[in-house]
Write a structure and sequence with these properties.
372 residues, alpha/beta, 8-stranded parallel barrel, two-stranded antiparallel sheet, 13 helices, 10 strands, 14% strand
């Protein structure tokens, strides 16, 4: 690899890679075919070797916590055996690793996403059960980062649920707490209730600047780092879609369905193609891909610690890494801004559109994946 992924600190003693490997695409039911474990582990290994050591999942990404836990366990065992010899138990390897001052080679971020139908009954026991389940699936002594979500703010209890997570953190089960898809007022309520939030995972891309409608400034004032998904809009912000015909329903997966709706909000297929054309010219100028330019744009936004890029394999690994060698200049920024100045949306706070009952954006959500 020509480029090694840089790291950034989001809390004292805790750093992450500036591109996070997103694993939503690996959840059961997301794509027609099931992931092949051997191929996935090989791809994840290549990513980690290139410096992409941080992975993102959730309790509701069916099968993914267990998949990442197995990958992490294998990699940790391999690293420790090189230093301490084979034949050690997992517990003894962890002790040896920490005694030697060797950091874990992988960071795994998960989420706490209670089912919409159970929001009114979330209590301390429920929170502890979900956290213990994530610990069992992922392995290890603690969870690196747990990101809190709440589907419906008309149902009270989200502040108390966040405080219950803080109790699990105090008990040593969670290292750091984050949020995901909160709007600005609710994130402020949680922070003001005394819950230390180090990061907020939001949708942020060339097509979706909603975090700039208040969230970025709030996070800047409170030292909260943004972890941004949708940087490539499910693959739409790549060379694959330049000069392509507009796709129509049904699309192959929920990710494309979700981000096609964002393109419609942005201004439609014609304006989107103008954006891709400008990105292709910028990419040619810097000898990179459209995807690298799109990722770089997100990484350059204020308060952004990392871009989350979904991956089922390592096919585009080098193209993604090229974002780190790319520096967008003023001419590039001006050309992009000319397109963005003509966008019609999406508007509002983060995740506002997705919360509207009965809307097309809400229609692709699955609200009760923790059931049972």
């Amino acid at each position: 690899m020509r480029t090694q992924a840089p790291r950034t600190s989001i809390a004292d003693g805790y750093s992450i890679s500036r591109i996070i490997v997103g694993a939503w695409q690996l959840s059961e039911g997301h794509a027609p075919e099931a992931p092949q474990r051997k191929a996935i582990f090989e791809a994840f290994g290549r990513m980690a070797d290139a410096g992409l050591t941080t992975f993102d999942c959730a309790d509701i990404y069916t099968g993914v916590e267990k998949l990442l836990g197995e990958f992490h366990g294998r990699r940790l065992a391999g690293h420790t055996e090189k230093r301490a010899g084979a034949g050690r138990s997992a517990a003894s390897m962890e002790i040896l690793k920490e005694a030697a001052g060797i950091p874990s080679p992988i960071q795994i971020h998960t989420k706490f996403v209670p089912d919409r139908e159970s929001l009114a009954s979330i209590d301390r026991a429920h929170v502890e059960r979900i956290i213990d389940r994530s610990l069992m699936r992922l392995g290890g002594e603690h969870l690196d980062l747990v990101q809190f979500a709440w589907w419906d703010y008309s149902v009270p209890g989200y502040i108390e649920a966040a405080q219950r997570l803080a109790e699990q953190q105090q008990a040593g089960k969670i290292r750091h707490l984050g949020a995901t898809n909160c709007d600005t007022p609710r994130l402020a309520e949680i922070v003001e209730a005394g819950v230390r939030i180090v990061s907020h995972q939001v949708q942020y891309s060339l097509l979706d600047h909603r975090p700039e409608n208040g969230m970025v400034e709030y996070c800047r004032e409170h030292g909260i780092h943004l972890l941004c998904y949708g940087s490539l809009a499910g693959g739409f912000l790549t060379d694959r879609w330049l000069d392509a015909e507009e796709p129509h329903k049904p699309l192959p997966n929920r990710s494309l369905t979700k981000y096609k709706l964002i393109i419609d909000e942005f201004g439609g297929w014609e304006l989107f193609q103008e954006l891709l054309t400008v990105l292709r010219a910028i990419a040619d100028k810097h000898a990179v891909s459209i995807g690298a330019a799109a990722i770089r744009h997100v990484l350059d936004r204020p308060q952004v610690a990392a871009a989350i890029v979904g991956a089922r394999n390592a096919k585009y690994l080098q193209q993604n890494l090229d974002a780190f060698s790319l520096q967008l200049d003023q001419e590039d920024a001006d050309r992009i801004e000319e397109i963005l100045s003509r966008r019609s949306g999406p508007g509002g706070d983060t995740f506002d559109l997705e919360r509207v009952p009965g809307s097309s954006h809400a229609g692709i959500m699955r609200y009760n994946l923790n059931r049972g």
